Amino acid sequence: MSNQFTAGAVVYARNTAKVSAFYAEIAGLHITHAEQDHVVLESAAFQLVVVAVPARIAATIQVASPPQPREDTAIKLVLPIASIASARVMAPSLGGQLNPPEREWQFQGSSVCDGHDPEGNVVQFREVAP
């Protein structure tokens, strides 16, 4: 794990292993540190820390199967990825989902698509145009 601070975010999860695996595979983040209560994922410019929700709170959280997007939050992660099409195919095997191609849009030279992780946290993926 680097001591150099990078931009980052924290995601709270009931299942840190499953949520961490989703972000590692879909966004190409590398797991640089893992303990029972948190996992650190990094790229050269970003750090995502997946933190275990305390047991007393986790017991009150229901995650549907398949997970339903939780859109009633003020913040949405935005992550660069190599291919939205590839991520769309890969996401279900990791417990998440990307919206269908007809819901993609263009923004600042990127193709953009929302999706959600295995616990329903909405995330935006951006594929930079060549």
Q: Which features characterize this protein?
A:
single chain, about 130 residues, alpha+beta, 2,3-Dihydroxybiphenyl 1,2-Dioxygenase, domain 1, four-stranded mixed beta sheet, 3 helices
In short:
The protein has 130 residues and is α+β, with helices and mostly antiparallel strands.
Report what the structure shows.
The chain contains three helices and nine strands; from the N terminus they run βαβββαβαββββ. It is of the alpha+beta class and 130 residues long. It has one domain: 2,3-Dihydroxybiphenyl 1,2-Dioxygenase, domain 1, CATH 3.10.180.10. The strands form two sheets. Strands 5, 6, 7, 8 and 9 form a five-stranded mixed β-sheet that branches. Strands 1-4-3-2 form a four-stranded mixed β-sheet, covered by helices on one side. Strand 2 (30-35) and strand 3 form a beta hairpin. The longest helix is centred in the first third of the chain and has 12 residues, at 16-27. The mean pLDDT is 92. This is Glyoxalase/bleomycin resistance/dioxygenase family protein. InterPro entries: Glyas_Bleomycin-R_OHBP_Dase.
**Rg from C-alpha positions?**
14 Å
- How many extended strands? 9
CATH-assigned fold name = 2,3-Dihydroxybiphenyl 1,2-Dioxygenase, domain 1
> Level of helix content?
10-25%
Mean pLDDT over all positions: 92
CATH class: Alpha Beta
Determine the strand fraction and express it as a percent band.
35-45%
What do we call the CATH homologous superfamily?
A: 2,3-Dihydroxybiphenyl 1,2-Dioxygenase, domain 1
Biggest sheet features = 5 strands, mixed
Termini distance?
31 Å
What coarse outline follows from CA principal-axis ratios?
globular
CATH architecture: Roll
Protein name: Glyoxalase/bleomycin resistance/dioxygenase family protein
InterPro entries: Glyas_Bleomycin-R_OHBP_Dase
